[in-house]
Amino acid sequence: MNAPANANVLAPSVKLLIGGKFVESKTTQWRDVVNPATQQVLARVPFATPEEINEAVASAKQAFKTWKKTPIGTRARVFLKLQQLIRENMSELAALLTAEQGKTLPDAEGDVFRGLEVVEHAANIGTLQLGELANNVANGVDTYSIMQPLGVCAGITPFNFPAMIPLWMFPMAIATGNTFVLKPSEQDPMVTMRLCELALEAGIPAGVLNVIHGGEDAVNAICDHADIKAISFVGSTKVGTHVYNRASLNGKRVQCMMGAKNHAIVMPDANKDQTLNALAGAAFGAAGQRCMALSHVVLVGESQKWIPELIEKAKTLKVSGGTEKGTDVGPVVSCSALSRVEGLIERGVADGAKLELDGRKPHVPGYEKGNFVGPTIFSGVKPGMSVYDQEIFGPVLCLSGADDIDAAIEFINANPNGNGTAIFTQSGAAARKFQEDIDVGQVGINVPIPVPVPLFSFTGSRASKLGDLGPYGKQVVLFYTQTKTVTARWFDDSTTSHGVNTTISLK
Ligand code: NAD
């Protein structure tokens, strides 16, 4: 951070979005956006000044006055148009994403597509934001509920899904009648900004969507701002916990989706080939930088003999730049992420785990400066080892063994995190037992990364989440609205008067 303003005079600056205009920040603090496969500086991102953050919130507050009263159909049609624009620009969005984040082009399209599904869902807002009515709760009295928008809401996003996660946030917030201030990850804000351009092109009025950039100071300003009513955060457990505590103390509604340690159980009756493919894809895809990546596998009974085949499978994966055809594992996002992952591998060895496959310092022709670490596998991993206790967020898979499903479930439930988990088995009884007894919010049965589609909500649990409601689907309609109940009586000539009623009962 804080690269001198003239360090990369040729790199374009990322703009702020305030009051419907993309504007140059007046800040003196800038950071480079760097291609993690090549170290090429793609752009410079500003750390917005306190005045600019206030302007963004003020513009959202002003726009709320009219947006909250905009008819449902008008709001919905903006998102019908946005989904079309995202589809038309899919290749460009994916290319931007790969350049600044590193993941492969097909996976970048997946990142955009999983966000697009939320935009499609937001276009259904008319049926999602319905209230309820009970007729005749007392003589001539009806009660009904209305789900009203909160006001200015804010979103703070991580680096690993720079398209999907902003799209988890602003479409549903805005479709429900709120206005929004987004603070994207300062590591890869470019694809997010392109999505915001498309959102304006789709018809989002000036001030309804605003974007500020920055890091800790910008996030703290959002947590403290009196005019922001709700915050959706996705990122690490440490920062999310801070955001939850600080913003809750300031009276805001907050939801934080945070770090993870996702375990899978492999039963000996599982389909071996399908299972090994699923494990390798979910552990090493996106270079392990998914909050739902499988990072620990508990091999039950005879499946412990499959380790050599899993290693062979991992060795077949191609490590290269995300734009290269056939690449399976791209670079990790930054040089500091690379040294953290390499350091954890070193700690794993020192802690006594068995390094079955060492992916450090792979030879990647044409990308010698990239932040690469290849698929890495440890066996004999136990709680207390750093590779188990910490979220590695790199292409590192840890293995341990268990005698039976009960021991495996007990092992997973003892871990504090609750983001995702999966079982691989051909037994319906084992799968059902797992589904019932596992204490993790998102469960896969022969599905390694069980991220629900937006007909449902993202339901991470325990240490992976703070706040009750998830970031999309039905739950987020509740998050972004305040339920108001109205109890109404209309008198007509036939209404019998009961005189003065001094009781709490409706008569
Ligand atoms: P991060 O917590 O470092 O950053 C998230 C956001 O917080 C960014 O916008 C960043 O600018 C801001 N931030 C960073 N440091 C801050 C500080 N000290 N004070 C205030 N704000 C700060 O996370 P990341 O490295 O960008 O993303 C990876 C993490 O996100 C992983 O832990 C991953 O599991 C988690 N994640 C969780 C989910 C989920 O749904 N549970 C989804 C994606 C990512």
TrEMBL record:
It comes from the Bacteria. Signal peptide: none annotated. Residues 22-486 form the Aldehyde dehydrogenase domain. One of its GO terms (molecular function) is methylmalonate-semialdehyde dehydrogenase (acylating, NAD) activity. Its EC number is 1.2.1.27. GO terms for biological process: L-valine catabolic process; thymine catabolic process. The keyword Oxidoreductase applies. Keywords: NAD, Oxidoreductase. It is an enzyme of class 1 (oxidoreductase). InterPro entries: Ald_DH/histidinol_DH, Ald_DH_C, Ald_DH_CS_CYS, Ald_DH_N, Aldehyde_DH_dom, MeMal-semiAld_DH. Belongs to the aldehyde dehydrogenase family. PANTHER family: MALONATE-SEMIALDEHYDE DEHYDROGENASE, METHYLMALONATE-SEMIALDEHYDE DEHYDROGENASE [ACYLATING], MITOCHONDRIAL. This is methylmalonate-semialdehyde dehydrogenase (CoA acylating). It comes from Diaphorobacter aerolatus.
